[in-house]
Amino acid sequence: MTVRADPYPPRSPDPPAPPIMRQRWTAVTYLHWPVPTEAIARLLPPDLDVDTHEGQAWVGLVPFVMRDVAARVGPPLPWLSHFCETNVRTYVVGPRGPGVWFCSLDAARLLPVATALTAFRLPYRWARMAAARRGDELRFWTRRRWPGPRGARSLVGVREGERVEPDALDRFHTNRWALYTVDRAGRLLHLPVDHDAWPLRAGTLTHLRDDLVEAAGIPRPTTPPRVRVGGDVRVVAGRPRVVAGGTRSLA
Q1: Percentage of the chain with pLDDT > 90?
Q2: CB 178 within 8 Å of CB 235
Q3: What is the dihedral of CA 83, 86, 92, 97, to 10 degrees?
């Protein structure tokens, strides 16, 4: 009898060695909706497939606060290493297994946005952003500046609940140990990440007005999202490597 490996293990099966970047994600808030598989498939490059849970594709709207961004050695840079971010993400399977595909990443610092666009070809956007905690409620505001669609907005409010034991769908959404992107030559890149398990809590939606999912080319969700609050973890990222369309590692 063949025992299949867990495709979404609680820790990275291949942690970055050595990592090239360190950071800390705080107040991570997950809003997820089921979406038609074909709506995701048309956004992906040829070497990626839509990853599904029980036959269902998902899109996530994930606002959080980034802190302590630094290279492998040396301290975080003042001001530049602390900013808000909101991601629109979905889930894929590629040549190196399951991973995340980012449809867009809005961030409040222009230099990190320009660096990520240039170095990793990630679809970062510069935005005016803020985050606040009011008792047990988290709120995030986003208004896109550049590139467009200029003025696309997102307002998310979530009230934190009790700690939850991750179920199969939580593990599908959060136990992701790599992202995929495509470089200027059209080659598929795999970038490994590692972090502690998310301390997940239930969440209740208090406010939602969002343009970012639709701006990413995904139909606007019409059902309430599944909500989780992921707390605070330290993350390390490894060197991107070409996994389709070439064999060269990238600096």
Answers
A1: 67
A2: no
A3: 20
77 pLDDT more than 80:
no
Q: Which H, E and C letters describe 113-148, residue by residue?
A: HHHHHHHCCCCEEEEEEEEEEECCEEEEEEEEEECC
**Backbone angle region of 59, left / alpha / beta, with phi > 0 → left and psi within -120 to 50 → alpha:** beta
Residue appearing with tokens 């990275």: 12
What domains does the chain contain, in order, with CATH numbers? Answer: 21-244 (2.40.400.10)
Run of H or E residues at 40? helix 37-41
SS3 240: coil
Identify the residue with better confidence: 32 or 73: 32
Task: Work out the percent of the chain whose per-residue pLDDT is above 70.
Answer: 88
Residue 217 to residue 57: CA distance in whole angstroms:
15
User: In whole angstroms, what is the distance from residue 88 CA to residue 186 CA?
Assistant: 21
What is the band of 5 on the pLDDT scale with cuts at 50, 70, 90? confident
What one-character-per-residue DSSP string does 148-210 give?
SSTT-EEEEEEEEEEE----HHHHHHH---EEEEE-TTS-EEEEEEEEPPP--EEEEEEEEEE
pTM exceeds 0.85: yes
